[in-house]
C-alpha cells in the first residue's frame, strides 16, 4: 500500500481484534499464500527461515511442514501471535516485531516468506532493505502484496458517493517494480495474478473485510458510522458492477521472489 499515513498501532490493533475470525474467512489469503509457496525453488533447503507478518500462523505451519525446520513467526499484532502460538507447531518461535525494523542479525537468514503482509508497511523500500540485511548472501525472499486495482469496484462505488478515501490505497505495479529494482537484490522476479471473488450482496464483502482486519485504515477516511443514506447510495453504486456470479471484488496480487 502506498499510503501516506498508515498508523501501525491501528494496523496492529485491527489485526489483533481479527485474530479469532481471520481463519474462517481467509480463503483468498490461503490461495495466494499457497501459490507463493509453490513458487519457491524445489532445491531450496533453508536452515533459518522467517514468516514475516505471519498472522494466525497458517503459513508458518506450512513452512515448518515443507522444510522440517523451526520457523520464526513474526508479526506486529500481538493478538495474532497469541492465536498463532496456541495453534503450534512446537517447532516455531513467535516474535512481535515490525517488518521495517527486524530484530535479527545481519546475514542470519536463508529464507524470508511473507504473504499479504507487506502492503501494510508505509515504506516497502525500508522493509526490503531490512530483508536484504538479514538474509545470507544467496538467501531468498518470497513475498506477495496487493497492487493497484485491488478492490477497485469498492473504490469506484465510493467515488460515486463522496470524495473520501474509503478503500486502502495499493501501489501501482510500475511503482512496485521500481522499488524492487532499487532494493539492491542480485535478481528478482515479479508476476501479477488477478483474483475475482463474488458476493451475493455488499454487506457480505464489508463483513469479510472486517473479519480479516483489513478494512480501511488509511488516514483521510471519515470518522463515525456510515450513514444510512450513504450506505444506500454505496449499495446502489456497487450494484452497477453486478455480474451473473454476484458482486465482484478484484484482488491484484503481485507474487515476488528476490535473491540476495
Ligand atoms: C492479511 S494478514 C496475513 C497473515 C498471514 N501471512 C496469512 O497469509 O494468513 C497481514 C498480517 O500482517 C501483519 N502486519 C501488518 N503490518 C506489519 C508490519 N509492519 N510488520 C509485521 N507484520 C505486519 C498484520 O498484523 C497481519 O497479521
From TrEMBL:
<comment type="function">
    <text>Converts the free carboxyl group of a malonyl-thioester to its methyl ester by transfer of a methyl group from S-adenosyl-L-methionine (SAM). It allows to synthesize pimeloyl-ACP via the fatty acid synthetic pathway.</text>
</comment>
<protein>
    <recommendedName>
        <fullName>Malonyl-[acyl-carrier protein] O-methyltransferase</fullName>
        <ecNumber>2.1.1.197</ecNumber>
    </recommendedName>
</protein>
<dbReference type="GO" id="GO:0009102">
    <property type="term" value="P:biotin biosynthetic process"/>
</dbReference>
<comment type="pathway">
    <text>Cofactor biosynthesis; biotin biosynthesis.</text>
</comment>
<dbReference type="GO" id="GO:0010340">
    <property type="term" value="F:carboxyl-O-methyltransferase activity"/>
</dbReference>
<dbReference type="GO" id="GO:0032259">
    <property type="term" value="P:methylation"/>
</dbReference>
<dbReference type="InterPro" id="IPR050602">
    <property type="entry name" value="Malonyl-ACP_OMT"/>
</dbReference>
<dbReference type="InterPro" id="IPR013216">
    <property type="entry name" value="Methyltransf_11"/>
</dbReference>
<comment type="similarity">
    <text>Belongs to the methyltransferase superfamily.</text>
</comment>
<dbReference type="GO" id="GO:0008757">
    <property type="term" value="F:S-adenosylmethionine-dependent methyltransferase activity"/>
</dbReference>
<dbReference type="InterPro" id="IPR029063">
    <property type="entry name" value="SAM-dependent_MTases_sf"/>
</dbReference>
<dbReference type="InterPro" id="IPR011814">
    <property type="entry name" value="BioC"/>
</dbReference>
<keyword id="KW-0949">S-adenosyl-L-methionine</keyword>
<dbReference type="GO" id="GO:0102130">
    <property type="term" value="F:malonyl-CoA methyltransferase activity"/>
</dbReference>
<keyword id="KW-0093">Biotin biosynthesis</keyword>
<feature type="domain" description="Methyltransferase type 11">
    <location>
        <begin position="50"/>
        <end position="143"/>
    </location>
</feature>
<keyword id="KW-0808">Transferase</keyword>
<dbReference type="Pfam" id="PF08241">
    <property type="entry name" value="Methyltransf_11"/>
</dbReference>
<keyword id="KW-0489">Methyltransferase</keyword>
